[in-house]
Design brief:
Layout (H helix, E strand, L loop, with lengths): L10 H12 L8 H14 L10 H42 L11 H24 L11
């Protein structure tokens, strides 16, 4: 007989657990059941309260405040990086172009393809984001 990896039930342990469940409030001489009585008492004493009615709204508000704060911080960092990288990019870019500019470099066709690819990817990404998460292959059901 195959058990599919499930260990067989120990009848003596099962009986001890049941005796402990039935006699958790009272005593008993069975040492095997005594160990399980502690577990039964702990399970019976667990709080059964529910979260406050506005619990979800408060958590969402805290997450929103934290997320907006993080987004602002990251946006400022990104802005500083951009401001610092712009002059460096202009200096390095100017030194890479030939004296006549990109039109005389003969790479205009390649740069137009790069520009077209960038605009296309941006447009596709915007359309997918507008369509919602289901369009990206996620169902949103977790």
């Amino acid at each position: 007989m195959s058990t599919n990896g499930i260990p067989p039930v120990d009848e003596a342990e099962w009986a001890a657990q049941e005796r402990a469940r039935r006699s958790a409030d009272g005593g008993g001489a069975d040492p095997r059941a005594a160990a399980y009585r502690h577990v039964v008492r702990a399970l019976r004493s667990m709080p059964c309260g529910e979260p406050p009615a506005d619990f979800a709204a408060r958590v969402a508000a805290q997450v929103e405040v934290h997320a907006h704060g993080l987004e602002r911080l990251l946006l400022r960092v990104l802005l500083v990086v951009f401001v610092l990288a712009l002059p460096v990019g202009l200096v390095l870019g100017a030194s890479m172009w030939p004296p006549g500019g990109p039109a005389q470099a003969g790479d205009t066709g390649a740069w137009m393809l790069v520009l077209l690819a960038a605009v296309s990817m941006s447009w596709i990404t915007a359309r997918l984001l507008e369509a919602g998460p289901g369009r990206l292959g996620r169902t949103g059901t977790g």
